[in-house]
Amino acid sequence: MVKFVLIPIALFTFFLVNAYTARADGKPPMASSKQLFLLQLSRNSNTVMYDANMGANQKLNPEKPIDVYWIRHEEQGQRESLSRIQWKLAYGYTHTKTSADTYSVKINAFQDRAFNVEYNETLGKAVALATIGGKKSYLQKIFVQLDPNSFLIPKVQYVELFGIEIQGNKAVYERILPK
Length: 179
Prior knowledge:
Blueprint: H1 2-19, E1 35-41, E2 47-52, E3 66-72, E4 78-81, H2 84-91, E5 93-99, E6 102-107, E7 110-120, E8 125-132, E9 135-146, E10 156-165, E11 171-176
């Protein structure tokens, strides 16, 4: 009986740990030293990267604290800017300054959930802070599962958030269903 309980737990842990470290095709995502988190869609392995836009003084750029761009793994792995439509309707963001070097951010297609971006002196880098599964966490990945039968206008089946809990340094996960 114990064996049947432990196998699903072990498999879940394996997939949870690997889910925020691998692309859809199993290859590791292209990361930069300024990476806050990444966003992947179920339809292919192309990845939207969200990097801290830092000045020489280790302060986030108040006009544009996050640099958002594609890594086109389905092509040659090149970096590519978002189109205006992609920015406005999906992957772009709005932000407001909440303190000296902290910004509240909402992704345009996911306005229900805000997260903070700030420079963490202990880690020596900017981080994205979000509540994931009820725990304050460092956001690492957003995965969007699209309905495979939706073509022109993609229909979201669910969104998954992956991160690391600030207190305890454990992997955290949350699945969000559309309203």
